[in-house]
Amino acid sequence: MGVSKRAPATDNVSDEGSKKNMKDDAVHLRRRIGLLPSISFIIGTVVGSGIFIAPKGVLMNSGSVGLSLLVWALCGVLSTFGALCYAELGTTFTKSGGHYTYLLETLGPLPAFLRLWTEFIFIRPAVASYVSLAFGRYVVEPFFLPCAAPTALVKIVSVLGVTFVVAVNCWSVTLAARTQISLTFVKMFALILIIIPGIMALANGKTENFQNAFESDSLSLTKLPLAFYSGLYAYGGWFYLNFITEEVINPNRTIPLAIIFSMVTVTVCYVLVNVAYYTMMTADELLISDAVAVTFAGRALQGIAPAIPILVALSCLGALNGGFFGSPRMLFVGAREGHFPVIFSMIHIRRQTPLPAVLFLYPLVIVMLVRGEIFQLINFASFSRWLFIAMATLGMIIHRYRFPEHLRPFKVPLAVAVVFTIVCFFIVGLSLYSDPWNTGGSCALTLSGIPVYYLTVKKSYIPKRWEKSFNYFSQQMQILLEVAQQEVQTY
């Protein structure tokens, strides 16, 4: 009897061990992102080129120093409200994919597909393009001062930055996470280096640039949404942690904590950085500068001014890395749900990275980078991005009403969700009037996804010969890239 009791126990242990080994060896995305990497991921993606480029766009469209500072503070509050809504969504729906997943779960497959469509047709390429252009400008411009840097050289350096980030994200999830943590510390150091001398000068009585701060001859209600777009662009990135929910350790605790800490930190830093800028520069001087942080450093940090462009360039690289880490997970989940070709839901069998999804972005970003101009890109991408964010939080409110018993480990006050949703829809609607060319083009491209959905996803009208050719091509790409579909359910 004693032997017969011990034998099953031994078998049980060996079975559990073999199952654990099989799971360890299986192709899937591991949970490797803890609290510090999560905070670094959010701050590192938010603090990129925006705080060094967007002050010009905010001031240009708000018309005065005082109103521009108010826009920066309100953008921080609005982004924090949105981030809290996404903390609820991220703990309610445990799949990766961010906006796409939440729209799919609350409003249905068509809005989700349109979000996926716009993300990879123009939002992500546009966002990555203007971050990489800022990286290229800050690397190149110091060598040509006081003259303007050659545009072609800026774009070549920008392409090199994108290539580096793509290589890191294809190589290893761990390497990409460590790169993000390192670059986050660098960019926080850069912000502190700007804040301290600015606040010291302000404390010593250098307040002339803040006199009559709200007086303006160029204030226009129709331009204000574009000021908010520039400010919200600088805060953009608070939702990227939701793209990788399946890779976050203990997401119910980690996601809300990381979001709240990160957004409070970023909002305070951004307002203080802008105060520092205006302490050392007049509004007119800020408007004629293409590299605000470099101009600031030349006045306030003369001894270490050459270091500022390097720190800013590394900050842009961190934002670029965060975007390339997060966005491919949306494509990965969309392909897993059948909304994109299945090749994009595959993972490298040894490196455990979503290789096809990362590589898909690369040529799209390069094309837009070569053709794009920074402020046009901001307005072009922002319309659809904020439209779908508003729809996702509207979906959250509807889901609460329809499924009140659904488990929600983190719950944001309803007033916060309602205010955020209304403000987003208002900004999106008014921007169509303020900049009809760019926002209208963005709207048209968004709607172009509707026939694509009905022709290829809802009911396939693709000729059999084309489908067969595409399947053959996909198989060859799978062999070439050494990728396979996920073998373990991670949600």
Automatic annotation (TrEMBL):
What are the boundaries of the region Disordered? 1-20
**Regions that span the bilayer:** 33-53, 65-87, 121-140, 152-173, 185-204, 224-243, 255-280, 300-320, 353-371, 377-398, 410-433, 439-457
Keywords of this entry: Membrane, Transmembrane, Transmembrane helix
Gene3D superfamilies in the cross-refs = Amino acid/polyamine transporter I
The UniProt entry, under Pfam families, shows:
AA_permease_2
Record keywords: Transmembrane helix included?
A: yes
Q: How does it sit in the membrane?
A: Multi-pass membrane protein
Q: Where does the record place it?
A: Membrane
Q: Does the keyword Transmembrane apply?
A: yes
Record-level Gene Ontology MF annotations = L-amino acid transmembrane transporter activity
Which InterPro entries does the entry link to? AA/rel_permease1 (IPR002293), AminoAcid_Transporter (IPR050598)
Q: Cellular component terms, GO, for this chain's entry? A: membrane
Q: What is this protein called?
A: Cystine/glutamate transporter
